[in-house]
Amino acid sequence: MGGTIVGTNAFRLYEGELGIRLPIGGMADTGDIDIAQFEKLSVALQDQVDPGLAETFSALKFDPLPSLDQGRTWRWAQGGSGQLVEFLTPAFGDETIRELPALGVNAQGLNYLNFLIAEPIHAAAIYRSRHTRTGATPGEIRDPQADHCRSAAGRSREP
Q1: Burial (0-12, 13-18, 19+ Cβ within 10 Å), 41
Q2: What tens digit of pLDDT does each residue of 74-99 get?
Q3: How far is Cα 121 from Cα 123, in angstroms, rounded to an integer?
C-alpha cells in the first residue's frame, strides 16, 4: 500500500545496504516505528488494507494516543511493551493531521518529509525470531498477501 519505514529503524538498515557496521553505541534510539506515506498516493491507490490498520492495531493491543486534533489518531502505543508506532505524511505548508485512506489511519504532516521518502530502496531486517521484514532506508513495506512489493512512489518491484 505504499508505506515507508523512516526514522531510526530505517537508518539502522543502512548497514546492510552499505556493507558496513555503523558505530551505533552512542546513537540515540527513539524506540518507535515511523511509517510514512504520501497523502496523494494514498488517495490515488483507491485501495485500502482490509481490515484497516486502526482495527489491526487494536487487535494487537495497541491503544490510540490522544492528539491535539480530537478524534484523529496518528500515534499508537502498546501498553505492555511500550512500543510506539507513528504515521507521517509530507506537508507542504501547514503541518496538520491528514487522512491516509489506503492504510486506514491518520498521519501527522511534516514539511520536507517528501525528500526522505521520494525514492525508497528495498531493505530487509531481522525481526524478533529470525523473521524478516522489509524496511526503508527509506524503503518499502511488503504486503504478505501480494507477490510483489510496492514502493512509496508507487512502483512495483519483484521481491
Answers
A1: buried
A2: 998 988 788 899 999 999 999 999 98
A3: 6
